[in-house]
Amino acid sequence: MKLCVASTNPAKIGAVTSALEKLTVQAEVNQQEAQSGVSAQPFSIEETKAGAINRAHHVLAGFDAAIGLEGGVFELDGTLYLCNWGALVTSTGAVYVAGGAQVPLPAEIATLLRAGEELGPVMDRYAQETGIRHHKGAIGILTAGKLNRVELFSQIVVLLFGQWQANSD
Ligand SMILES: O=P(O)(O)OP(=O)(O)OP(=O)(O)OC[C@H]1O[C@@H](n2cnc3c(O)ncnc32)[C@H](O)[C@@H]1O
Ligand SMILES: [Mg+2]
Prior knowledge:
The chain is globular and about 45 Å long. Helix 1 crosses helix 6 (149-166). It contains six helices and six strands. The protein has a single domain, classed as Maf protein (Alpha-Beta Complex). The protein has helices spanning 10-23, 45-59, 107-114, 119-127, 137-142, 149-166, and strands spanning 2-5, 28-31, 65-76, 79-90, 95-99, 103-104. By secondary structure, it is an alpha/beta fold. Strands 1, 2, 3, 4, 5 and 6 form a six-stranded mixed beta sheet that branches. The structure holds inosine 5'-triphosphate and magnesium ion. Inosine 5'-triphosphate (ITT) is lined by residues 7, 9, 12, 40-42, 70-72, 118-120, 123, 132-133, 137-139, 149.
């Protein structure tokens, strides 16, 4: 099966390859940078989900399926939360979506995002590290490493493939 992942972010590529191993799915995995078609910092569940779907559709041509993975934030009861969404689209027109881990963001981070900053650089400054979004992710910082961005997106990819399988039998 030829599969395309709509990102060159190593955390997202690693999530797909580790999920495929767990699912024992043989696939030729290609990676392509893709426009999410939403704001650089998605600010709702709807926008984050749409970004994942748009990415997958943008790279699907020539493949059996494509996966889009998108991180974002959303407001709930006055608190800003991290959210993560994935989409798997197939050459036959199927679209599967799944949401992943959500956690509250510290108030100081929320203030900066509401002022228009992106979570990536904000997390790097907050944790005094670089490139957090390419490996442990905000989830890794906020859970003291108990879950990282690869594991988080890997679970989403398993949910996507599981739905594909459940609808293909
Ligand atoms: O290369 P791509 O695939 O675009 O991946 P990304 O790391 O830019 O991440 P997303 O586009 O999926 O997320 C949208 C923005 O939200 C930020 N973001 C989302 N989840 C994050 C996380 O876990 N850690 C750090 N930044 C995150 C990041 O700065 C992005 O600019
Ligand atoms: Mg991005």
